[in-house]
Structure to design on (279 residues):
């Protein structure tokens, strides 16, 4: 899968970077890196408008309140691993977890250690949403036997769930290379219960889970919400992330119509995660 990278410098930087990140997320961009003068935004080439990626953003009208410099380039699939490896540093999730690559020194790692070779996939723990989802997993009272990791990426959340006590983890992603990466990383971490499936939420018909993890984006989460409610066991837990703290009220209200009640909200750098319970 090829990706479109947008490098956007904004003067002044604030509050425009936060506004633009939210608007680009609605345009199909799925990963963002803050820079000294703006943001880098990444989206799958087939899911974004490469000709007009800034459509429906405030930059489309070139606001007089901000100066903008925009560069874009296509990152071919074969080069994505090199992009990640060049920037991939160990990730610490408080004292709970350290996410490392095979080439990192583990001598100072804290808590559980998960080894990830990201290849083409997202979900190394660097992004605030993966960080919050990992923290939330450690702070659950218990981990149910059956867990679903929806949009698994590298598989890191699935591995944490197994290590914390899950007996069977279904890891689903729409990209076949993410499924391959998850299986490779499962072997690296000696995880034995991971069932990796290529597909969307419809591949889960007839299954039930005590815990569902979904770190995707707001629009897909809303589209999947009824399915999550259907396959989540009574009193089960749904952990959601992939959206901004400004989206929390909308998602909580939307989830309530499916019998899903908010337990708590986590926040990190304007991103959020929600823990919900099925009534």
């Amino acid at each position: 899968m090829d990706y479109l990278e947008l490098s956007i410098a904004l003067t002044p930087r604030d509050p425009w970077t936060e506004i633009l990140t939210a608007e680009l997320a609605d345009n199909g961009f799925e990963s963002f890196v803050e820079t000294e003068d703006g943001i880098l935004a990444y989206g799958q080439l087939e899911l974004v408008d490469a000709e007009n990626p800034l459509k429906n953003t405030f930059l489309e009208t070139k606001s007089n309140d901000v100066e903008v410099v925009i560069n874009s380039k296509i990152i071919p699939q074969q080069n994505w691993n090199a992009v990640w490896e060049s920037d991939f540093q160990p990730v610490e999730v408080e004292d709970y977890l350290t996410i490392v690559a095979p080439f990192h020194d583990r001598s100072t790692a804290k808590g559980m250690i998960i080894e990830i070779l990201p290849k083409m996939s997202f979900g190394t723990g660097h992004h605030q949403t993966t960080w919050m989802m990992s923290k939330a997993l450690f702070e659950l009272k218990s981990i149910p036997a059956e867990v679903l990791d929806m949009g698994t990426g590298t598989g890191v959340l699935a591995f944490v769930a197994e290590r914390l006590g899950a007996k069977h983890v279904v890891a689903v992603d729409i990209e076949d290379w993410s499924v391959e990466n998850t299986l490779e990383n499962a072997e690296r971490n000696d995880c034995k219960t991971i069932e990796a499936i290529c597909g969307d939420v419809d591949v889960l018909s007839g299954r039930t889970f005590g815990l569902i993890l979904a770190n995707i984006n707001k629009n897909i989460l809303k589209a999947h919400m009824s399915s999550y409610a259907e396959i989540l066991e009574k009193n089960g837990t749904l952990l959601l992330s992939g959206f901004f703290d400004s989206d929390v009220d909308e998602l909580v209200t939307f989830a309530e119509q499916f019998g899903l009640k908010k337990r708590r909200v986590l926040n990190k750098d304007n991103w959020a995660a929600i823990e919900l319970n099925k009534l």
Remarks:
- Residues 3-75 form a domain with the Alpha-Beta Plaits fold (CATH 3.30.70).
